[in-house]
Design brief:
The protein is an alpha+beta fold. The protein folds into two domains: 7-44, no CATH class; 52-177, Molybdopterin cofactor biosynthesis C (MoaC) domain (Alpha-Beta Plaits), CATH 3.30.70.640. Helix content is 23%, strand content 28%. It has helices spanning 68-73, 82-95, 97-100, 139-157, and strands spanning 31-33, 39-41, 52-63, 111-118, 123-134, 165-175, 181-183. Helix 2 (82-95) packs antiparallel against helix 4 (139-157). The protein is elongated.
Length: 184
Amino acid sequence: MAQPTDPHPAQGPRGTPEPGRTAGPGSLSHVAAGADGAPESRMVDVSAKPETARRATARSRVRFPAGVLERVLDGRGPKGPVCEMARAAGVLAAKRTPEWIPLCHVLPLDVVDVRFAALDDERLEIRCTVACTGRTGVEMEAMVGAAAAALCVYDMTKGLDKGIELESVRLLEKSGGRSGTWRL
């Protein structure tokens, strides 16, 4: 009788990791060689990783024409309390990140915290912090939450002025797992 072979050799064709194996530094973790050797997308197998506390904070920024941000912060937007609706949108989006980003794992989030701060008379910063105990990080959940909150702010205020702009979404900090803590 033939001996079973390892269905997950450490390296596949062209040196790409096979499913169930971790990619090395500088490689794309969501790409593996298919049966024909061509690259295929895949969800990373995290089953062998230990569960650890994971945390990430991301920010988004929205720029308003002069005089508009004050109305937003005072809750006088054309569709109601802008920041409270955007907070809800950020929380809901973070919880549903795998529906936005197809190869993300479903994670049992312990907290999603969305905060707003005026940087000056024209710019609103939105920070989304996400935490859980899991086998993979929550940076995508933090970025999706920050992005969705910014999109909601735009939707709720676009009637005030056509010059409102979404400027950026950026990861600021992440911690947990083998990588320790990373900060921008």
